[in-house]
Structures are given as structure tokens and as C-alpha cells.
Specification:
By secondary structure, this protein is of the alpha/beta class. It has two domains: 221 residues, Rossmann fold, CATH 3.40.50.720; 219 residues, Rossmann fold, CATH 3.40.50.720. It is built from 16 helices and 13 strands. Helix 2 runs parallel beside helix 8, helix 9 runs parallel beside helix 12 and helix 12 crosses helix 13. It is elongated and about 80 Å long.
Length: 456
């Protein structure tokens, strides 16, 4: 099927879908966004700012109350932005899932974590679809945005939605469009990021393309939901594998006394054939540490090995332990002591610079490994005053960020820079710290070096 042809005029639509197309074209279609987190809330913002009425859904009633009061709980979406959305009269948040039927289009942005054995956990998608199915009506379009393995939309979502007797392509439309959010990136806003779109059949592709074209600058139609699902996984596997490569190069060059960050900076001057990736203390966030394993899990169904992806996962997962080993060695060499009974400050808890998101953050693992070696660990993060509850690091929940001062820094035996937020005075840090283990080259970028600075 020619995706461009399917997306454009060329055949008449059945009555309910013709009305949906008209409502999309006139921006009167009500768009429901399910899951108002780091993906869903910026998406709701883009849709609302384009002139569509938006009904946002979240099971957290406290978040719903904040949003309806014009306040945000995500740093990348300011309070003023949410207040403006509410002020237009076009945005409302709700925890009442019985209202799914009020939306003409339902966009699903719920989490897709891994289970305890690195198997896909689709429970959030399944429960959401079960809720949608209870109120599904003719003429609606449902689009999954959550990252998942190829086949999920048609093999998991479609059967659940069809349980009440309505059929995809005949009564309602179904599509998949992978989210491409980059929290903390001020350059690439949601509306400016090209949107890959797919549909379960030509009708679904046509209407899904029209819908997304109403609030993003460029739509990229593809031939099937499985293809669109594979696009998202490919993007994140690419990043995971390349980060693993530079992490391995960090180990190799470090043994040779070569600064890997200087190597990457110089290599990046080549105008072709090279793309810079940065090493670090491990992977974090809601995508890169998780998504590749959705593909490795699905590949087993086809008896295909994924050695490259799994090796990258092993390398990246080993980075926190490498950092702690480097810390212990540096303490022994420079202070004549080991980690036991040492006081260590971990700088930065977020999984990456300038965000307030701790999901899968390697800093949490660093704290656990440091304390497992008999040391005491504290943390400072200007964006995360308290460690939120997590399934993987439950014992760390509730710990508070320590205040930063020259006196406080001097009280620690070493500082580990795990996340290089911009709002930190690294000069003052380097001047006060007895020892700094820098996993992000934060001091190097600031032109700071010396015998008390060790890169890891």
C-alpha cells in the first residue's frame, strides 16, 4: 500500500469516519491523551496549542487536581503553560476512565516497563485498552504511542478493543505512532519533532495522518503498525549500542592513559562518517535501558539471536560497578584508605542533565553499590529534593538531597559526579572536594583538572 496515497483524498469515507475527518480538519475533534507523564503532558500541550480540545486522563487524582488548577508537576512543562492550557477552556484533566467515550481520538501514552526477568510488561497498555473498550463507540480512532515490540498494536491492543463487538477498520480506527520525546531538550519541542504514523488499514492511516498533521510540523506515514513499532525500537537500540561502544572505549583508553572525552571531541570534528556519543556511569531514563530488551524478547519467538544488543546491555549495566571500583582505587591511592566507613557524596540523581526524572537512573545503583562496600552515601540534586518511591530501589525512597556548601563538600571523603546538571558551580566543587570522580567530564568541560580529579 502507498502510505502517501492512503493518507490523502482518493476514496470516500464511511459516514462516521467522514465526520471524524471533518472534525479533525476543523480542529473540533476532542483528543483524549491517556497518561499525563513526561510523554503525555507535552503531547497534550502540543495538541491544545494547535487548537484542539483536549481531555487528559491519569489515574493519579493528585496530578489531575494540580493540572486542573493550572499547575505542573513536570519541569519541562511550566506552571504558566498549564495555566494557559486551562485558561483556553480547551484542556481538562480527569481520573474518570469512564469518560474515554467523550474523545474522538484517544492517544495512549502509558508506561511499558520490564518485568523481573526482563520480559515486556504490557499491563498498563492492557488495562488502558480494557477501559477504552468499555466505552468505545463507532467513529473513534485509538492510537498507541507507548514504546513496545513489533506486533503489540495488532496482536494485543486490537483484540482487547474488539471484545465488545466493534471491529477495527469497520467501526473504529486503530493506529500506532511512537513517542519521540526528549526531556530536557529545549531545542526540539513536541510539535517540531517529525511524527512516524501508522494505521490498521488505509482508513486508519489516512485519519491518523490527518490527526497528527494538525499539531506536528511533519508526519511520516509508514506501511504498518509493526513497522512503526520497529522504528522506535531501532532508534533506541542504536543509541544503546553506541553508548555501550563509547563506554567500552572509555575502559580501553583509560587503561592506556588516554582521555576518551578528548578523543570523542576531536573525532566529532570530522564532517562525515562519525556521530559523537558520550560515555557515562550507566544508562537511565524510560527508553534506552528498557526498549532494546523488548526487541530481544520478541526475537526469541522467531528463533533469532540478538547478541549485539545483549552485549551492549551487559556493558552499560556494568558501568556503575566500574565507577565504584574507580572510586575505591582512587581513595586508596590518594587518601590511603578504602571505601569502608568513607563518606561519599553523589552529585546528581536524575538519569541525565537538567531533568527531574530518576527513572532507571544509574545514580541510584551507584548509591547502593557504594553502601554495599561499607561506605555512607548522600546525594545532592538541585532538581530532586527527595528520592521518589521506585520498585527497584525501594530502600532509598524518602532520602533527601543534602545542602551544598564548601564546608559540606569538605566533610566528604569523595564526590562522585553522576549527573552533570548545569545549575552546579563545578569550580567551587573542585576547589572544596578532597577527591572528585567525574563520570560525565563535567570538570573537563569547565577546564578544571588536577590531582584530585579522576575521570571514570
Amino acid at each position: 500500500m502507498d502510505a502517501a496515497l492512503a493518507a490523502g483524498p482518493g476514496f470516500d469515507l464511511p459516514g462516521a469516519f467522514a465526520e471524524l475527518e471533518r472534525r479533525i480538519a476543523t480542529r473540533t475533534a476532542r483528543v483524549g491523551v491517556v497518561g499525563l507523564g513526561y510523554v503525555g503532558l507535552p503531547l497534550a500541550q502540543a495538541v491544545c496549542e494547535a487548537g484542539f480540545p483536549v481531555l487528559g486522563f491519569d489515574i493519579d487524582s493528585a496530578k489531575v487536581a494540580l493540572l486542573n488548577g493550572g499547575r505542573s508537576y513536570i519541569r519541562q512543562v511550566a506552571d504558566a503553560t498549564v495555566a494557559s492550557m486551562v485558561g483556553t477552556g480547551r484542556f481538562e484533566a480527569s481520573a474518570d476512565l469512564a469518560r474515554f467515550g467523550e474523545a474522538d481520538a484517544v492517544l495512549i501514552c502509558v508506561p511499558t516497563p520490564l518485568g523481573p526477568h526482563r520480559e515486556p510488561d504490557l499491563s498498563f497498555i492492557e488495562r488502558t485498552c480494557e477501559g477504552i473498550a468499555r466505552t468505545l463507540r463507532a467513529g473513534q480512532i485509538v492510537v498507541l504511542e507507548s514504546t513496545t515490540y513489533p506486533g503489540t498494536t495488532l496482536e494485543v491492543v486490537r483484540p482487547i478493543l474488539q471484545r465488545a463487538g466493534l471491529l477495527s477498520g469497520r467501526d473504529f480506527l486503530l493506529g500506532y505512532s511512537p513517542e519521540r520525546e526528549d526531556p530536557g531538550n529545549a531545542v526540539h519541542a513536541t510539535a517540531a519533532i517529525p511524527k512516524v504514523v501508522s494505521g490498521d488499514g488505509a482508513l486508519a492511516l489516512r485519519l491518523a495522518t490527518a490527526l497528527y498533521a494538525g499539531f506536528v510540523d511533519r508526519v511520516v506515514p509508514v506501511s504498518s503498525p509493526a513497522t512503526a513499532e520497529a522504528v522506535k525500537l531501532t532508534e533506541n537500540v542504536f543509541r544503546a549500542v553506541n553508548i555501550a561502544l563509547v563506554n567500552e572505549l572509555k575502559l580501553i583508553y583509560g587503561a592506556m592513559g588516554i582521555d576518551v572525552w578528548e578523543v570523542i571531541e576531536a573525532a566529532a570534528t570530522k564532517p562525515f562518517g562519525f556521530m559523537p556519543f558520550q560515555p557515562g556511569p550507566g544508562l537511565g531514563g524510560h527508553c534506552i535501558p528498557i526498549d532494546p530488551f523488548y526487541l530481544t524478547w520478541k526475537a526469541r519467538e522467531y528463533d533469532v539471536s540478538t547478541r549485539f544488543i545483549e552485549l551492549a546491555g551487559e556493558i552499560n549495566t556494568a558501568m556503575p560497578r566500574h565507577v565504584v571500583d574507580t572510586l575505591a582505587t582512587a581513595l586508596d591511592r590518594q587518601a590511603g584508605r578504602g571505601l569502608r566507613d568513607a563518606d561519599i557524596l553523589v552529585m546528581g540523581l536524575a538519569y541525565k542533565r537538567n531533568v527531574d526524572d530518576t527513572r532507571e537512573s544509574p545514580a541510584l545503583r551507584l548509591i547502593e553499590l557504594i553502601e554495599a562496600r561499607g561506605a555512607r552515601a548522600a546525594y545532592h540534586d538541585p532538581l530532586i529534593p527527595v528520592i521518589p518511591p521506585t520498585r527497584e530501589h525501594a530502600a532509598l525512597s524518602g532520602r533527601r538531597s543534602v545542602a551544598l556548601s564548601p564546608e559540606a563538600i569538605r566533610a566528604f571523603d569523595a564526590v562522585v559526579i553522576a549527573t552533570d546538571h548545569d545549575g552546579v558551580d563545578y569550580g567551587a566543587l573542585a576547589a572544596s572536594a578532597r577527591l572528585v570522580i567525574d563520570t560525565r567530564n563535567a570538570l573537563g568541560r569547565a577546564g578544571l583538572s588536577g590531582p584530585t580529579v579522576v575521570k571514570a
